[in-house]
Specification:
The protein contains nine helices and ten strands. With 267 residues, it is α/β, with parallel strands linked by helices.
């Protein structure tokens, strides 16, 4: 039961060691059969050299270098390389909880009809809204839920191999809301679930939006979300009223984010 973990890396020399260490610590509690695929996305700092050094100390770590093309492209490169029966992700500035891998692999055994499972990134109880509880703290996620909120944060998500084999990928070159596109297509075609349990966290305690990096470009994020909704309407069989409702909700979230970001900066 090989587990492949994909980590896109860009200028993360300060956090990548801790990111990888958390993944190794979590995996070794439940399996020795794993690979960690680190895709350096054209870093200009010491990230690539550090990755090569880490790989020399652990033969299960694979390092790939590519010219800068964004996290979506880096994750796709990892998906093409991954050989695992299960595929998981982390980001180079995030870390897994110790029980991350044990929890998700156990849930796949318990729910054989589920092919994608995610959990809390930080403690975000808002993610539970409108979900149907299946058992204890496990919830079902369908496409309609996903259109209103992206329930799947890559650092806390694991997939069965069948999703990769069917050809679902991130949009190469996309730099905003690329996760929503990918998981919209997953939830449209496969059984998906969500567990009310923290499985990952930001090493730098970065907010979900309005801080530094790509998440700081609120307009870019909103354009990406709207593009994903249009794609769902055109290609995933989403009805007009569901599309319109999700579109209005997305625009309202956008203005709310602007207000919250301004209040943060004013402190």
């Amino acid at each position: 039961m090989l587990v492949s973990v994909i980590i896109p890396v860009y200028n993360s020399e300060k956090t990548i060691s801790r990111s990888i260490e958390s993944v190794v610590a979590s995996l070794t509690l439940c399996t020795d059969d794993y690979e960690i695929i680190c895709v350096d996305d054209g870093s200009s700092d010491n990230s690539l050299e550090l990755l090569k050094k880490i790989a020399l100390e652990n033969s299960k770590i694979i390092v790939i270098h590519q010219d800068n093309a964004g996290a979506a492209s880096a994750r796709n490169r990892g998906l093409e390389t991954a050989k695992g029966d299960y595929i998981a992700f982390n980001d180079s500035d995030d870390e897994w909880t110790e029980d991350h891998a044990t929890v998700l692999l156990s849930l796949f055994d318990e729910f054989p009809d589920i092919s994608c499972i995610s959990g809390m990134h930080e403690d975000e109880k808002w993610r539970l809204a409108a979900l149907k509880k299946e058992k204890n703290n496990f919830y079902r996620v369908v496409l309609k839920n996903q259109l209103y909120k992206n329930y799947f944060s890559p650092p806390s998500t694991m997939l069965r191999r069948i999703i990769v084999d069917c050809g679902i990928r991130f949009v190469d070159g996309a730099r905003y809301a690329e996760e929503g596109y990918f998981f919209n297509h997953v939830s449209a075609q496969f059984g998906c679930g969500f567990i009310d349990k923290k499985l990952s966290a930001s090493i730098l305690h970065k907010g979900r939006f309005g801080d530094c990096g790509l998440s700081g470009n609120l307009l870019g994020m909103e354009r990406g979300e709207i593009s994903n909704l249009i794609d769902a309407r055109r290609n995933l069989g989403v009805g007009f009223f569901t599309f319109a409702g999700a579109l209005v909700y997305s625009i309202l979230k956008y203005f709310r984010r602007i207000v919250i970001a301004k209040l943060r900066r004013a402190k």
